[in-house]
Design a protein that fits this description.
The protein is mainly α and about 210 residues long. Helix content is about 80%, strand content about 0%. Helix 2 runs parallel beside helix 4, helix 4 runs parallel beside helix 6 and helix 5 runs antiparallel to helix 6. The chain is elongated and about 75 Å long.
Length: about 210
């Protein structure tokens, strides 16, 4: 199953089942893509309007970047499912003998590192999206700024959710130096970009009320 190509209903049904994938990572990527698309909507409703002729070139550039981010985030839904599979197999490995325990520990460390790569990438792409949403909100049509605010709220949630899929894996890593560096990188993204997303949302809210 290609999770980015199934219906919304099917995705949610599988997400809510006992199937191991999709999970929080895939859901985060999807919500990030939705947030990005909401920004893109602002751009699409801005270009071609005489009132916004001065920012039209900027809007086209933002739209192009947003389309690429949407594509990347949707692709990460499937990639997240793919990197979880080796990890799930490691959990099932035997560990009765000393040799089996050593083999499992080494395989586990490798699988945990790989499993972290996708949620980290989801976070990075979501941070890029939040930066775009700020520009869509400030330059886009005032008739569509609510969509930029909604996109910021989605991306703030996606960023936080994706981080949990990193932390749950780094918690089990034996290489604590590597784990703490990953945690630090995620902490920095959370600290910086949840604030930016919150500021975008608050600014839009203030302009609407």
């Amino acid at each position: 199953m290609v999770f980015s190509e199934v219906s919304c209903r099917e995705f949610v049904d599988v997400l809510g089942s006992k199937a191991p994938v999709p999970g929080g990572g895939g859901a985060s990527a999807l919500v990030g893509a939705v947030g990005c698309a909401l920004g893109n909507m602002v751009g699409s409703l801005t270009v071609g309007k005489k009132k916004y002729k001065d920012v039209e070139a900027d809007m086209y550039g933002l739209i192009e970047r947003a389309v690429n981010l949407q594509r990347d985030l949707l692709g990460l839904i499937q990639r997240d499912a793919e990197v979880f599979e080796p990890l799930s197999k490691v959990y099932a490995m035997k560990h009765d003998t000393k040799e089996q325990k050593q083999e499992k520990a080494e395989a586990m460390e490798k699988a945990l590192r790989e499993a972290c790569t996708v949620p980290v990438k989801i976070m990075e792409k979501t941070c890029e999206t939040i930066e775009l949403l700020g520009q869509f909100a400030s330059k886009g049509s005032v008739m569509a700024i609510s969509d930029a605010g909604a996109g910021a709220a989605c991306c703030q949630g996606a960023l936080k959710a994706a981080s949990l899929n990193v932390y749950i894996n780094t918690k089990s890593m034996q290489d604590r130096s590597y784990a703490e560096q990953l945690n630090k990188n995620c902490d920095q993204m959370i600290e910086k970009y949840t604030k930016i997303a919150g500021d975008i949302f608050d600014d839009v809210l203030l302009r609407l009320k």
